[in-house]
Task: structure prediction
Amino acid sequence: MKKAMILLVLPILLGGAIFSYWRGTNEATVSFRTAPVRRGNLTVTISATGTVEPEEVIDVGAQVAGIVQSFGTDPNGKTIDYGSTVEAGTILATIDDSLYAAEVASAVAQLEQAKANVRRAQADLVQMQAKLEQAEQNWKRAQELGPSRALSATDYDSYKAAYQMAVATVGVGEATVEQARKTVAQAEASMVRVKSNLGYCTIRSPVKGVIIDRRVNIGQTVVASLNAPSLFLIAKDLRRMQVWVAVNEADIGAIRPGQPVRFTVDAFPNKMFEGTVGKIRLNASMTQNVVTYTVEVVTDNSDGVLLPYLTANVLFEVDRRADVLLVPNAALRWAPSTEMIAPEFRGYAEVDDDPEESFDDEDSPASQPDNGLGESESKGILWVAEGAFVQPLTVNVGPTDGSRTEVSGQGVTEATKVVTGVRKTASTQSETTNPFTPKIPRGGKGGPPPPPA
Result:
C-alpha cells in the first residue's frame, strides 16, 4: 500500500517540477528604458498654417462697358499675359470706343453751339443797351419840357414808358448772356465726362508690378454697373511677401509684432524661410466653433523664390532658452507601479496602475499648466532607476518645444538617466534548453534530414 502511494505521488511531483521549470524559463522580467538629461538650447514655438500673399495687390477694373478689342504689350514687347512685368501707365487692354467717340463728337458740337449762343446773347445785349441810351435821352428831354403846349401829356408818358421798357430789356439781355455762359460751362463739363469715358476704354496699369491674374479674353464683353468688373490682378512688389496665418485663440496671446517667425512651403520643403510678425488682425473668424485670428508675417523675397498663394507651415518663436537641462517629455509622463518603486519611496507620489504604459517623445508633459509657452514653471517628477527599482526626483518644469522640456532643481544634473518607459525581456533562463522538449532531428552539416527512400 505504501509503495502504491509512492508511485501515485511521484508523477504528481514530477509534473509539478516540470511546470515550475517551464514557468521559470518563460517568465518575463521588467527592464527600464532610460534617457540621459542633456544640456542644450530650447526654442519654444507655436505652429500654424498660412498662405503666402503679395504685400500689396491692385485689382484693375473697367469703368465702361464694351468689348475687349486687344491687349497691350509689356516693356519687352510681349503681349500682356499672366506673369507680365508692367510699369505704371502701361496699356493693359483696350475696349471698343466707338460709342464713346460718338459721345465726344456730340459733346464738342454742343459746346460750340453754347459758345455761339453766348456771342449772340452778347450782341443782343449791345442792341438793348443802345436802345436804352436812346430812350434815356428822350426821357430826359421830356422831363425838361414837362407836360406843356410843346409836349403833350400822352407823349410825355410814352417817353417815360419807353425808357422803363429799355431798362428792363437790358436786364433781360444780361440774364440771357449769363444763361448762355452757364450753358457753355455745362457743355464743357459734359465734354470732360465723355472724354474721360473715352479714355477709360484704354486700360492702363496704375502701378509698377507683375500681372498675377488675367480675367478677360479678347472679344469678351465687360459690363460696368454698380461694381466695376475686374480685368487684371497686379502685385505691386513681389520682392516683399506676406504670410497670412490663422492662429488659434488659445495661442494668440503669445503672438506680438516683431516676433521672429520661421516657415516652410511644400514647394521647397528643404528650405527654411524667415520673417517677422507685422500685424495681428482683430477681425476674428469662427469655423466649427474654433476662433482664429489672422496674423500677417512679413518676409523678404528678393530672390523671387516664394510664389503667391503657396501654403506655409509656420513656427512662431515664443521663447528661447540657452544652455539648459533638457529631458524627453516621455520622462515626465511616465509613472511606475508601486512594485517598481524603491520601498523607502513608496507612497511618495501617485503612481500609474499600468506600469507598461509609456508615451512618445512628442507628448507634452502633463505637469505643465503654462501650455508650453515658458511663462511659468511648475513641479514635476522624474524617475531614476536604481538597481531593480526606481526613485523619484522632484524638478522644476519649464517650457517645452513639444518633444523636450526644460527641467531644473536639486539632484538633476547633466547625464542623469531618467526612466521614459519599461520593456519586458525574456529571462536568461529561457535560453536554457528544456530537457523535456523533443528535439528536431537534423541532417548532415546542420541541414534538414534527407527525404525517406
